[in-house]
Design brief:
The chain has a 5-stranded antiparallel β-sheet, sandwiched between helices. By secondary structure, the chain is an alpha+beta fold. The chain has 5 helices and 5 strands, in the order αααβββαββα. The radius of gyration is 37 Å and the shape is elongated. The model has no long low-confidence stretch (mean pLDDT about 75).
Amino acid sequence: MTTRNLPAVGILLVAVALSAGCGSDDDGNPTATPSVSSEAAPTGLPTPQAPPGADGATPPSAAAQGTTQRRPASPPPVVLPKRPASAPGAKQVVDAFRAAGLKVPRPKDRSVDCGPDGLGLGCSELIATDAVTVYVFPDETSASDIAETWGGQSYQRGAVVLNYLEAKTPAADRPRYEKVLDGLG
């Protein structure tokens, strides 16, 4: 190709590009809707046609809907194991601390943390305060296992475990909480 032909080839390429991009059957009408050509539709595949619904609208095809099952709007409630009838409840323990003049600021029932979506400790009840956290387990074996895990930062009496890990209770005050718990059982 010579240098004299290069501008002519460039003009030809621009003309082809413009005619390919601007060629439409809308006769210059800017509000005309584009037509669908047969080239856009896949060939050889049957198009399923669903019968119209009661309101005249065509329902979506089974392939478009898929096989996804609807889930409930909220998760099912967490079912916690029952505490033994002989063990005091976590609220009862906190109330006993308060009645004995011990600090139990900002008690929060966090029993939902006992279940599989929370800490998964398997406890029956859990109330956390700024001074101590009270756990009630379904049996003494579970309580003992957790108390051993927490070492010197906990106290176990039957199915109830007092946890001081996140508490701001001075070590010197802990025996007072433990004495009140011992008096409940």
